[in-house]
Design a protein that fits this description.
Belongs to the protein kinase superfamily. TKL Ser/Thr protein kinase family. TGFB receptor subfamily. Its cofactor is Mn(2+); Mg(2+). It is a single-pass type I membrane protein. This protein has a 5-stranded antiparallel sheet. A 3-stranded antiparallel sheet has the order 6-9-10. Strands 7-8 form a two-stranded antiparallel ribbon. The longest helix is centred in the C-terminal third of the chain and has 21 residues. It is globular, with a radius of gyration of 21 Å. With 362 residues, it is an alpha+beta fold. The chain folds into 2 domains: 107 residues, Phosphorylase Kinase, domain 1 (2-Layer Sandwich), CATH 3.30.200; 211 residues, Transferase(Phosphotransferase) domain 1 (Transferase(Phosphotransferase), domain 1), CATH 1.10.510. The protein contains 10 helices and 10 strands.
Length: 362
């Protein structure tokens, strides 16, 4: 039912979501927490590492009470809900966004996908009658909200700055890394990295969210599995090669390096909020001073590709060793030439060294 894109394969093996929507619920014993359920499914070896069994997911989805809307995006809405008293986040997709729902569900259910710095997936479900459907994605709830929200209302010290940066890159590194073996994990590129798609946990660490645009790479077949949806990321965070349509979609590495450019911009947003020598800058989005609030492709292309401008690095950063190193790091992530950008692993190692030299324990 979907046009095939060149040699990219469209996965025809859709999960069995078409089963009778009104079937019996799986009995979940009282006292079982979400954490218990997930731990059991990981240790039981029943598709371990790739999420809860489908009927358990459907049961949880049916039993959630929606409490209040906490966000809205182009794909739908995010609600805070409760399951047996535990708070969860529920992403409700517009019916037109079935592709994003499907892709995000599929990525979260990828074997070995669970990681401290990737948003914890709980369940996905479709509810509906013939003419009306609702697509749900249920995940862990983080009351601090997105990194964007967090930076708007909090200033950072060096320790908080390094924790936010290190945990974000750890999540990205896990996504980007292929794990080999019969039950391996494909390499995954995010394609829509921005401060609104990273969440801040209670402990001051981050996790990466919003995987509806992700691409997977299967090294056995050498195929890049690109979702056929039309959403292509956020203009403000797009690398030059995407803005001038020069990205080589047949090599997976292109998508990885595009993520690294966006990550450089996120680092810039975070570092500005770090107090150094009594100085701290207000939170701004990258290129806030160079393009309009809702920039067009043309606005962005002009600044990023033609003028080759990048967010400005404040003078006072040079007098603080940590901020100076961060400035160097971000400019090596947003290099014009994708081949010159740092990899996620390289950034992770550099930040780990910085944490060590500051004597910050993770």
């Amino acid at each position: 039912s979907f046009p095939l894109h060149g040699r990219y394969k469209r996965q025809t093996s859709r999960p069995p979501y078409s089963i009778d929507l009104e079937q019996d619920e799986t009995y979940i014993p009282p006292g079982e927490t979400l954490k218990d359920l997930i731990e059991h499914s990981r240790s039981a070896g029943s598709g371990s590492g790739s999420g809860l069994p489908l009927l358990v997911q459907r049961t949880i989805a049916k039993q959630i009470q929606m409490v209040k809307q906490i966000g809205k995006g182009r794909y739908g809405e995010v609600w805070m809900g409760r399951w047996r008293g535990e708070r969860v986040a529920v992403k409700v997709f517009f019916t037109t966004e079935e592709e994003s729902w499907f892709r995000e569900t599929e990525i979260y259910q990828t074997f070995l996908m669970r990681h401290d710095n990737i948003l914890g997936f709980i369940a996905a479900d479709i509810k509906g009658t013939g003419s009306w459907t609702q697509l749900y994605l249920i995940t862990d709830y983080h009351e601090n909200g997105s990194l964007y929200d967090y930076l708007k209302s909090n200033t950072l010290d060096v320790s908080a700055l390094l924790k936010l940066a290190y945990s974000s890159i750890s999540g990205l590194c896990h996504l980007h890394t292929e794990i080999y073996g019969t039950q391996g994990k494909p390499a995954i590129a995010h394609r829509d990295l921005k401060s609104k798609n990273i969440l801040v946990k209670k402990n001051g660490f981050c996790c990466i969210a919003d995987l509806g645009l992700a691409v997977k790479f299967n090294s056995d077949t050498n195929e890049v599995d690109i979702p056929p949806n039309l959403r292509v990321g956020t203009k403000r965070y797009m690398p030059p090669e995407v803005l001038d349509e020069a990205l080589n979609t047949s090599t997976f590495q292109s998508f990885i390096m595009a993520d690294m450019y966006s990550f450089g911009l996120i680092l810039w947003e975070v570092v500005r909020r770090c107090t150094s020598g009594g100085v701290v800058e207000e939170h701004q989005l990258p290129y806030h001073d160079l393009v309009p609030t809702d920039p067009s492709y043309e606005d962005m292309r002009e600044v990023v590709c033609i003028k080759k401008q990048r967010p400005s690095i404040a003078n006072h950063w040079s007098s603080d060793e940590c901020l100076r190193q961060m400035g160097k790091l971000m400019s090596e992530c947003w290099a014009h030439n994708p081949a010159c950008r740092l990899t996620a692993l390289r950034v992770k190692k550099t930040l780990a060294k910085m944490l060590e030299s500051q004597d910050i324990k993770l």
